[in-house]
Structure formats: C-alpha cells, structure tokens
Amino acid sequence: MGVETSAWSPYRAVLASRLRAQRAYPVGFVLDVLGSLLVGLVELAEVWVIFSNVRVLGGLDFSAILLVFGLSNLTFSLADLFVGHLDTLPTYIRAGTLDAFYLRPLPVLGQLVTSELELRRISRIAVGAAALAAGLAATHASLDLRNVVLLVLAVVFGTAIFAALFVCAASVQFFLINGAELTNSFTYGGSYAASQPASVFPGPLKLLFGYLVPVVFTAYLPTLALLGLPGPAGLPAWLAWLLPVAALWVWGVALVLWRWGTRHYQGGGG
Amino acid sequence: MTSGDAAAAADPVGEPIIEVADLTRTFTVRRRGNGRGRRVRTTIAAVDAMTFRVSPGEAVGYIGANGAGKSTTIKMLCGILVPTSGRVRTCGLDPLKHRRELSRRIGVVFGQRSQLWWDLPLRESFSILAAIHRLDGAAAGRRTEELVEQLEMADTLDTPVRQLSLGQRMRAEIAAALLHSPDLVILDEPTIGLDVLSKARLREFLIGERAARGTTLLLTTHDMGDIERLCDRVLVVDHGRLAYDGTLPGLAGTVGAQRVLVVDLTHPTGDLTGIPGTSHLGSEADGLRQRLGFDAEATTAADVLAAVADRADVRDLSIEEPDIEDVVRRIYRSGGGTSPP
Predict the structure, then answer these.
(1) Is B72 in contact with A100 (Cβ distance < 8 A)?
(2) Is A4 on the interface with B (CB under 8 A)?
C-alpha cells in the first residue's frame, strides 16, 4: 500500500473493494444484468407500441421520440449507476449502520454515494445509448460542433439532474419511516416524465417538470434543440442551453434537503 | 509514537477531553391515542440537562438501564445526533461543526452494529479504513500488525466479516476503531454477548492499550466486571439524568450498600447480634458460620472483627463486597420517582 494523499483515495479504496465483491458472485451479476436489460427493452417496446398506432406524439415523430427516450434513459441509468443505491438509506437508518458513516472523516453523502457501484446497471445504460444512437441516425441530426456540445451538455448535466433527484429522495428518508415507495415514485416517476414529450403535458405539469423538477431538461429540450424545433409555449427549445443552470438548481435544493435531513437524523435506536 | 506526542501537546493538562454542560436531547414520539386513530405527540427527554467532564487519560464507565440515555449521549459526543440544547465539546471540538476532524481523534464501537464491510475479509476492511483515515502506508501497516497481534486475530484476517464469530467480530470492531490511534475511545457495550474468556481477553487488551498510549476511555456496559476491571470512575445515568459521578466503591456507599463480613467460628455460637454498626444477616451450622452486614462509612472491617473476636474464636473470615448490579438497581429505584414517566 503506497502513500496516497489525493482527496479521492479513500473513496477509491472503498469502490475498488465494492467492485471486487461484485466479481465474487458472477452468476448473480449476470442475472442482474439480464434482468435490468429486460426492463429497459420492455420500456422501449412500450414506445414502439404507441407509435404503431400514432404517427406523431406531442409534435415529435418516432425517430425524435427515440432521441428523447435514449437521452432520458441514458442519463437516468447513469445517475442510477452512480448514486441509485442512495435508496438503501432507509435500510442503513433502520439497521443503525448509518452511524458508522458519521464516525469517519469524510462527508456522509460522499461515503453513501461511494458505498456501492452497481455495475449491473450498465445494461440499462446500454439500452439508453443504443436508443440515442438509433434516434440520431433516424432523425439525420447533423453531428456538427453545436450539436455535439449540446449532446455532451445533455448527458453530463442530465445525469447530474437525476442524481440530484436521488439525493432529494434520500434526504426525505430521514423524515419518513417507510417512505421508500413515495420517494421511488419521485425518482422513477421523474425518469418516466423525462421520457415523454413535454408538449403533451397540461400547463401545471409543464411547470412542474420544466422548472421545479426540471427533468424536461434531460431529454425533451435537448432533442428539440438538436432537431431545430421551436418547442411548446412555456418551454422554448433554447432553454436546453441552460442545462447547467437547471442542474445547479436541483443540486442546490438537494444539498439543502440533505443537510436538513442529516440534522434531523434521530439515530438508529440503541 | 510521534502522533501520540502531537495529540498530547494539543491537549494541555486540565483541558477536559469531554465536556458536557446542560446537555439535553428530546425526542418527539407519536403514539396512537385512545380516540379514533388520532395521534398524540409526546416529548421525551432521552438526555436531560446532563453535565460532566472527563479529563484526558481517565477511564470512565457510563452505566444505566436500557433507554436511560447512554447511547443518545454518545451519539451527541460523536456528532451523530444534534443536541436539543446545552453544550458539548469532544476533544475540544464542537462535534457537529467539526465532525470530520473529530472522527480522526476518536474511535467508537457500537457493540451491536458493525462498522466493517460484511462481505470483505478483515484485512481489506483494515486497509480501506487506513485509506479513509489517510494513514501513512507504513504506519498503518505497523499499527494493523500490532493490533492483530494483541487481539489475536492473525488467523481470521482473511475471513469475510460475516463469517466471524461474535467474539472475533468484536475484536475486529475494536481494532478497526483503534486503527487511527485515537485519543479518546468510546465503547458502547463492547462485551455484550461475549463469553467469559473473550471478555477477559478484551479487557486485558484495553488495559494494555491504555497503559501504552494513555488513551481516554468511555465505556458503557451492563457488565460490572468491565467497570471493575477497566474504569476508575463511574457515571450512572438514569432517565437521562446523571444520578452518580464518582468512584465505584463510593457508588456502593451512596446507596448504603453493605459489605458483609463472613466469619467461621471454632465452636457453635449464638447469633452475634448487637455489634455496633452491624446487622446480623444469618447463621449456618448452629452458628459455626455467621454473616454480619456493615456500612463501610460507619465502621471498619477491623473494628467489626475485633468485636466478634471478643465474643467467639474466629477460625476463618471473608468479606463480600456489595453486588454492583444491586447497587445500580437501587439507584434506579430511588431516582425513578423524580423523573418523568
């Protein structure tokens, strides 16, 4: 063991051990990968079914919807890979093992995030990436510098937005005893909303998913901007360039909630 | 031991390592009331205006019934729980504001919860913890080796934590908490569920560790053997309040617990009643063995023995010390009435 002083070395030590632990059970790992692949494919099939009945939904045709689906799935499953295991927080709270995180010289949130890295989620990422690639090909979107920058922004900050939603959901767990279902509806519901063309939403939902829980930024707005479409009233396509602002907003809320939650933590009994 | 010297320099003598003043933590409990599912909120003070100080190098037993507020106090000392009111300083730091800095200077074991990675071999848990505490590689290796040797864990180092026996796991937990050589060690029921041999080993280790490093120890336990062997000071907490702060023998005196002089006599003798400061507790074998209870504050064993020798020939004698669990029970009973239900 060498002398490592970088800020990441403690996290790297934990993550490396988590990856080794997953390699210890290869059969279970393969089954998990296949399972989440299946879930991704079923969701994709759902889009397919809708578009075998209609030609255009919310102003987008099938190839554009593939882009929305691909971006929202890719960013959500990337966030799920990095921070999705935050939804095990209630288990830690109930078992009292969260206390151990308080006893180490690292931020509790950072430790929780790095407490696991569930590689089985790569199959969902693969489904999202494949849908995105197919969508790009089908829409003949030009991959000039502007669009590449836009795609990178969408993937990086879209992932950040979903990651912040996971943090918000976890923060709420400090207040709820059995709130996992409610908060799952928040994260998975957010991901579902992100995969829809927001133009079909009624006004209040546009406001909700466009500005308060800005999942519209993860897929719908970048798709509009990529394809040069104007976007519906209240959600103009140029908003896509404000992805970093949207991510900053949700992360601000998430960190305030998290601080509030950890302050409210009552301990796991004893 | 340069790290130990540095820590000692930062802690001038006289500066307490734990300082708690008027510390209070309340919990709101929602209970179903007697009417149609309406919920009643009640506030319970788990820790109620607690005040005490611990100086560096002390070994303090923190005892009390289940739910008396021991763990709540400890969690506030470590920065896990936010106090409702009052002041707490651990190693001179505010545990909430400086939780991360504090965690480098304290080692904590919660006996009933593991802080190790259940699916990893011990060796790996130790190296991760060394990385988390940013210990220098060589120093971490030396310290691990030292702990492994003293806690006799060499043959379990490659076993995943989930396969360890309770005794092995507890030793591993303690090694993990001491890896970064903390100034203050807080153990919450470290011997719970352990067999006699494992307990004895653990106590030996802690005594040795304190002698070598001058570590401050705060220990909660239900095992009076732990207190007798390890602690020179006892804090008794009852219903969130401090009921006693002093030495273990003094604790017995406070509640009027009696020492018992047991005398074996050469000839059958009538009951030895009326000896000043004693009460006759019983006779066996026609008065060949008699038991006399006396208050350690009122008289001495020598005086009682002299008075007995005036009346009978003493062949042998022994002195029974007060049963500490009984003493603590008495404290709970006397303190229970003044606390909220």
Answers:
(1) no
(2) yes
Of A86-90, A180-184, A252-256, B215-219, which gets the smallest average pLDDT? A180-184
Residue A81 has what pLDDT?
92
Q: Does A1 touch chain B if contact means CB atoms closer than 8 Å? A: yes
**Beta carbon pairs, A and B, within 8 Å:** 95
pLDDT at B336: 46
Choose the weakest-confidence range: A177-181, A249-253, B240-244: A177-181
Write down the mean pLDDT value for chain B.
Answer: 84
Kind and range of the H or E run holding B54: strand B39-54
For B61-101, the pLDDT digits (tens) are 998 887 788 989 999 999 999 999 999 999 999 999 999 99
User: Which ipTM did the prediction report?
Assistant: 0.79
Say whether pLDDT at B283 is over 70.
yes
Q: Which two tokens stand for residue B156?
A: 């379990």
Q: Do B113 and A4 touch (CB under 8 A)?
A: no
Inter-chain residue contact A1 with B141, CB threshold 8 Å = yes
User: Cα angle at A102 between A96 and A107, to 5 degrees?
Assistant: 130
**B140: nearest CA in chain A?**
A1
Chain A hits for B117, CB-CB cut-off 8 Å, are: 17, 21
CA neighbor of B182 nearest in space, from B89, B78, B82, B88: B78
**Nearest-10 crossing angle of helices A145-173, A180-194:** 170
Inter-chain contact B78–A2, Cβ cutoff 8 Å? Answer: no
Quick check: B318 and B224 in contact, CB under 8 A? no
Cβ <8 Å between B108 and A21: no
Give buried/exposed letters for B314-324 (b at 16+ CB in 10 A, else e): eeeeeeeebeb
What's the gap in Å between the CA of B268 and the closest CA on chain A? 54
Q: Residues A209, A241: contact at Cβ < 8 Å?
A: no
Strands A56-57 and A60-61: antiparallel
Q: Residue A265: which region, alpha, beta or left (left: phi > 0; alpha: psi -120 to 50)?
A: beta
Residue B338 has pLDDT above 60, yes or no: no
DSSP B124-172: HHHHHHHHHTT--HHHHHHHHHHHHHHTT-GGGTTSBGGGS-HHHHHHH
Residue B77 identity = L
Pairwise CA distance, residues B309 & B290, whole Å: 13
Contact B63, B235 (CB under 8 A): yes
Mean of pLDDT values over A51-69: 87
C-alpha–C-alpha distance, residues B180 and B129, integer Å: 9
CB pair distance less than 8 Å for A268 and B113: yes
Question: Cβ B128–A103 below 8 Å, yes or no?
Answer: no
Among A3, A99, A102, select the one facing B137 at the smallest CB separation. A3
Summarised one tens digit per residue, pLDDT across range A110-124 is 999 988 888 888 899
pTM (2 decimals)? 0.81
